[in-house]
Amino acid sequence: MTERLKKLFKFCGEKLARFQYESIKTFNLMTLVAMFPANRDMRTALELQKEREDLAQSRYRECSSDLLEHLERPS
Length: 75
Known about the structure:
75 residues; mainly alpha; 0% strand
């Protein structure tokens, strides 16, 4: 395994972990909004959290695409 490939794997693992973390936070806020639907502060927090989750997902997808592209290149 090349150094570049090792770095890509590590980087993608970090991005995936961040995406998972943000997804869990989003899910927890969804649960609170479901329990307290009239609470506008929680709804706003959920919207902001969803943006963070979307960004984390986008960064992971970009990284995984780079990794896949690297793996598909002939050695």
